[in-house]
Amino acid sequence: MDLDALMRCVGTTSCIVTQLTSGMIIGMLLFLIASGVTLIFGVLNVINFAHGSLYMIGAYAAWTFYQLTGSYFISALGAAVAVGMLGVLFERFLMSKVYGSNVLMQLLVCYAVVLISDDLIKIIWGPVSLSMGMPVEFRLPPLRFFGGVVPPFYIFMIVAAMAIGLLLWLVIARTRFGNIVRAAAVNGPMVSALGIRVNLYYAAVFGIGSALAGAAGALAAPVRSLTPGMGFSILIESFIVTVIGGMGSIVGAFVASIIIGLTRSFGSIGFPLFVDGVMFLIMALVLIFKPSGLFGRPHNK
Amino acid sequence: MSSIDSRRTGRRQILKGAGALATAGVIGMPAIVKGQSGAIKIGVPTILSGRVAVLGQTSVGGLKVVFDKVNETGGINGRKIELVVRDSKGAPQEAAKVTRDLINNDGCQIIIDAEASSGAFAVQEVIREIGVLCIHSNSETSSLTADPKLHVPTAFRTARQGIHDAIGGGDYAAKIAKAKGLKKWATCSPDYAYGRSNTAEFMEYAKHFDGNIQVVEESWPKLFQPDYTEVVTKVLNAKADAMYSALWGGDLVAFIDQANLYGLFDKQASFMVNLGDYGVVDQVKQFPQGVYSGGRYNRTVPPTKENEEWYQNYVKTQKHKPTNWSWENDVAAQMVVEALKKTNGDTNGKKLAEVIKGMTIKTQFGVGGSVTMRAEDNTLVNYIIGYGVSLSKEPYIADFQTSPWEPIYELEKQWKKKQGYAS
């Protein structure tokens, strides 16, 4: 514990700016993944334990598109679309078979997908880590705000993640598609009885959730090493976010992502050896005092 | 914002599932390279997947260069040498399990432990039980061979040792620090045995040679950590004059990529013991210029015909560039071959250990063309140690300064006494 260092940090604007943006960067990447997990869970009531693999595939797809096109924006978009389409196939051919099954059955299917995708990555891209490097557009000196340092790419990352989150919320809360999806989440058979092909909506939701993971992978690709299995650690953190925010709540995932991001950025200064412990402690406290999560609805028995 | 109703699956089930997934994640399936009967089987536990797969890939490359040549010329008394390589995925418990399997199930008579330090200590304990010859070819953590309590008579190390690099590097860093007035230092090294001990030893000797140096900030990112953002900003906020890092492999690549965004290398002097290695050089897209880098493997160090030929042959046969781990494994393989020749192919651990103790072999990786397996602590000495300055293009390292071994021996003796390793 070095609380003196933490106090010194919060006493200087440069440190506050740097650590705040650092927390937002960590948080927004988590948000993109957690929002996909929470969306899929909220509508389809399945836990996509293979979501980390979709993030990994998104990163590798972005790397490949970048090698082919040289354009980061096309690569990121292409990766999100490709992973979204892959998600639809995953839902139609595998996950739809275990809807309503025991969670362990869902886990087995997902774990099989995790192992297969890790091995496919090794076969296609090799076992050695890859690095995309910073796209030319973002090879700029870091910006300074109140003495704090913020890299331009991270500003893009934060804005892009927030824009995607806002768009997702608008689609779910303000469109006919969103109305049907929310209705199907409450009572799928009733929506189906109204002549709506619910299965198509389920596939679309899974595709959107997967595309979010793909977009997160594409945003991470310029700054993280690409390795088989890279989705595993971020999946655990995204589950922490999902539980803290409340299962099924997109705004909950947003707030919880920022909480976890700031815990990591300021925790690295004040309690560097106990950052993970604090993250799990927050989750435990939420589960004890508000079991449905900060923004989740109480569970119907 | 919208909250989507969930009805059938509860949080407890999700947490159970997440727990089961976490457990499943650490259980791996071994990749086996099966051998032929009648050959001398050498088991190689190493890391072949994940962030530092380059360690396993280039370690096996270093071994193959030697053993393939021996096999092409008839083997040892007509017996071929066969490598059985398995992936531990960098998990210590898996390294121990894989080593047992290699000996008990695959019939390997010798182990070349090409694990990182995270796995090497676990392998050492397996060797203590079983007693076959083992050469640790990659672990640099000093205590593995320096601590008498950990001593195993049939276990040796051909990897460079942290304390040697620390003394040589500390001397080099202190000279730069004095010249440039680098007093406040930050450190950023992986949080496991190697990172902790290497960093402590480097800073101890930097301070030994320049009493004005003080460490004002320490960062200990986890091994294979995907995101270094908070670590980079922590180092940045320390406003230190210089930074030392023992990050390596893919971890170092990710750190550099993320540190470049903040312009970290422009704001302070940086000393990175593991930077100047082809495994890193080829991965980093914006290789930083002007960083003080430890000598790992470079085709120009030493600038000899033999070294260039070895490099060319390695690239031609293995289809990738060699790394520091390649030469360390090359030396391990050469010592095993020499020992087997002396025992007429007898693979008994004790007999092989007797001939390897104190063995000197000729190699371009040694100062003056030879390295020795020091008998007193079963560790390699007289290999080339030094620091240079990084360049963003070939040869990637300039002004390489080789550290003399006499002061290293002297200070190592004192260090051992201080640690309670020697009286």
Overview of the molecule:
- With 301 residues, chain A is mainly α.
- Chain A has helices at residues 3-10, 13-44, 51-69, 72-93, 103-125, 152-174, 176-193, 198-220, 231-245, 250-270, 275-289, and strands spanning 143-145, 148-150.
- Chain B has helices at residues 11-25, 53-72, 92-104, 117-130, 143-146, 162-180, 193-209, 229-238, 249-261, 264-267, 278-281, 305-318, 324-342, 349-356, 405-419, and strands at residues 40-46, 81-87, 110-113, 133-136, 155-157, 184-188, 214-219, 242-245, 269-276, 292-295, 360-362, 370-374, 379-381, 386-390, 397-402.
- In chain B, the strands form three sheets. Chain B has a seven-stranded mixed beta sheet, sandwiched between helices. In chain B, strands 2-1-3-4-5 form a five-stranded parallel beta sheet, sandwiched between helices.
- Chain B has 423 residues and is of the alpha/beta class.
- The N and C termini of chain B lie far apart (69 Å).
- Helices cover 45% and strands 17% of the residues of chain B.
- Chains A and B meet through α2, α5, α6, α7 and α9 of A and α1, α2, α8 and α9 of B.
